[in-house]
Hints:
Elements: E1 3-5, E2 25-27, E3 32-34, H1 50-54, E4 60-62, H2 63-75
Antiparallel strand pairs: 1-4, 2-3
Amino acid sequence: MTLVINEDKCARCGVCEPECPNEAIYQTEDAYAIDLSLCTECKERYGDPLCAAVCTNDGIEEAEQSLYKKCLNLFG
């Protein structure tokens, strides 16, 4: 499983970007994103995702949760 940034919750503060040891988080024109090919959820070193730990709005989620929420919004 991998992590995604929920754009609805992201405050675009940038606090997550320097925490990523794999440099998987980057800024786009109007949001932050996670490069799925680089994200390891910090399991090899820390056990828990550092970016999610510092996110003040709980905007970093596991991909399945995000997809599940989108389905709920579409289909109720």
